[in-house]
Amino acid sequence: MQAIRIHESGGPEILRIEDAADPHPGPGQVLVRMEASGVNFIDVYQRKGQYAMKHPYTPGSEGAGVVEAVGSGVTRVRQGDRVASEKFLGSYAELSLAPADYVVRLPERVSATVGAATMLQGITAHYLATSTYPIKAGDRCLVHAAAGGVGLLLCQIAKRRGAWVVGTTSTEAKAAFAREAGADEVILYTQQDFVAEVKRLTSGRGVQVVYDSVGKTTFDGSLDCLAPRGMMVLFGQSSGPVPPLDPQILNRKGSLFLTRPTIAHYTAPEELASRADELFAWIADGSITVHIDRVVPLAQAADAHRALESRETVGKVLLTPSRLTPPASAR
Asked: For 267-283, what is each residue's pLDDT tens digit?
């Protein structure tokens, strides 16, 4: 098979396509012939060396495709099933292994590209809005990076649950996508002070919850946007890690709550299946839309990383094996 391999930490140029041995499923594993693989910021962090990885390795954990084979003890899925997962052991490849307990079947009306685009960002948006801070009707919430993959889905789910939503984006073009996803107000953080705007828009009351995937550059301001006893949900660090925090700050700013969730703690096998079922049902009936910015051939994974890091994308970036990439005339 062909796979992207990383031999050392560095920039996008280190993402190289190589011939690799076909994997074989062990006990409790499934082998999937990939049709689409998600590109996520965690892949960037790992590539740069911010998260320690053993080299060489194949990046990527999210994707969808068709089960090629199953290992011993696997009963949840069988050969030929269409599945998706965010637990692949290297999804930037034509074939990839995943633990059977962490794959979900795709409904007939959900394509492999949409399935791949949903498993990390969609499940993340779901647990953030329904479990980390369960949004209820009448809540006010702030969503940073509202035109990103998680942001667009968070806006939609928050509106579905009855919230008033304000998002931040860098450009008016991205703001249009956030509004389409349900944001009641959008702040262009490149032109406006988002703290001052949130205060103005809420008549000084603040919001009940902030969903912040940006980290270093927005963290302090996000705390200032919260109403008393509000919750700061920090779930990423695209601008860099947040410096150490004196907990007394939370007291002084209104007895605030701070949490740093991660998907692993919200996706035990049965919980994952339940979240995926609900998300796919919403997608199938048109209640929410998964926006796919671009689908890039596997061999051009470096270009996909550059696009993600440059903030030029809106929604999801996917990779697809060369055998599935349509000719330029058909795109």
From this structure: 999 999 999 999 999 99
Would you list the domain boundaries of the chain? 2-119+291-330, 123-264
Instruction: For the domain covering 123-264, report its CATH number.
Output: 3.40.50.720
Question: What values do phi and psi take at 330, rounded to 5?
Answer: -100, -5
How far apart are alpha carbons 309 and 327 in whole angstroms? 26
Residues recorded for the chain: 331
pTM, two decimal places: 0.90
Give yes or no for a contact between 198 and 221, defined as CB atoms under 8 angstroms apart. Answer: no
166-170: long-range contacts (C-beta < 8 A, 24 or more apart)? 166/140, 166/141, 166/142, 166/197, 166/198, 166/201, 166/207, 167/142, 167/143, 168/142, 168/143, 168/144, 168/194, 168/218, 169/145, 170/311
